[in-house]
Every structure is written in C-alpha cells, then in structure tokens.
Amino acid sequence: DGGITQSPKYLFRKEGQNVTLSCEQNLNHDAMYWYRQDPGQGLRLIYYSQIVNDFQKGDIAEGYSVSREKKESFPLTVTSAQKNPTAFYLCASRTLGAAEQYFGPGTRLTVT
Amino acid sequence: QQQVKQSPQSLIVQKGGISIINCAYENTAFDYFPWYQQFPGKGPALLIAIRPDVSEKKEGRFTISFNKSAKQFSLHIMDSQPGDSATYFCAATHFGNEKLTFGTGTRLTIIP
Fold first, then answer.
1. Under an 8 A CB cutoff, do A101 and B46 touch?
2. In A, which residues are within 8 Å of B43 by CB distance?
3. Using one digit for the tens of pLDDT, what is the confidence trace for A13-37?
C-alpha cells in the first residue's frame, strides 16, 4: 500500500515544549515538503528537501527545524520559538522531474 | 510576482448546477497549474492539472479552463453533487522550481 503517512493524527502539547511530527513515504519520491495550514490562509511552505541530508527553508521556517537522514522520512520539529504553533501540518512528496505533489493526511497540533 | 489570487472565498451551488472557481497569477514563468480538493480533516488530493499549451482540460465532471493572455485559470464542476462539497485550492509553479504557490482556497457547498 503506497503512500504518505503522518503520525500522529492529533497532537497536544504544552507551551514551551518542542514536538516532532512524523512524515514517511514509500513512493520512492525524492523531494519532500512540510506545509502549515491555518483557516482562510491556504497552505504555507515551511521547509522542503530535494535529496537526503539537504533541505531548504520555505516561506515560514522560523521556529521550525527538519532533518532528512533517509529518503523515506522527513520529520518536522516545532520548537518553543514558534509563536503560534497550533495549526494543521501537512507533509507532501514529489518525484524529481514531475510537478505533481502528493499530500499526506495531516497532523493537527494543538498547543495550550 | 509569486502570488496566486483565488476567488471566491466561499461558494454555494445547488445540486446539479455548475460550480466555478477562478484563479489569477502574475508570474508569466508559471507553466503548471494544478487544482487540489480537500475534505475537512484530510490532506489535499490532486484533482486535475493543466499546462499552458492547451486552453482546456476535462476529466469527468471537472474542467480546467486556461487563459494565458489574461493570466487566469478556472475550475468548472459540472452537475455539482453534495459529495463535491470541499475546499478547493489552485496552485502554480514552473519547471525547475521545487515549490508550488497556492491560492487561499474556496469552500464549496453543494445544497440539495
């Protein structure tokens, strides 16, 4: 069963704590992306990675960090420096040479 | 120059009617225009996409119309059904660019 998995589906954290969101894909895609979605604001790019051990900041990278140690995995850490972390987080992937991005089911993070 | 402007923000259509969502872009280098469909609590799913070498692309009840000179593209949903009720996002990118630029989304509601 090929696809993108994100876990957990819901995540609750206290303010001041770092939290890591998981994204795994078995589509053999080269590029992976993290987006943040807030009501009425569409999708905003946080980080993306084209190859293992390399990644670039997107439009709203402040307060987030990523790693890409394996092709299949692209975890996102929401740090305590992120001022408004409560949001719906989406992971996507793409094969190089193709334009289509495919999305995972998302993780809803709530920080109180 | 990277913006994609989407309208309307929300749309209510009667069952059996035609739903029309519009997007406008500024960057003339854009050459790939996908539409995504997102149900509440789920990740966006690629619905249909077009490249600027054609003015229209149809897949079932979904049609993209593309006007290169006006830098506009639109999604038409024919014979709209309650199951089409979702949020729709347009996006754009150009070959060699790793990033998609998304519109802000349209919440479509199909009423009986």
1. yes
2. 4, 6, 90, 92, 103-106
3. 999 999 999 999 999 999 999 999 9
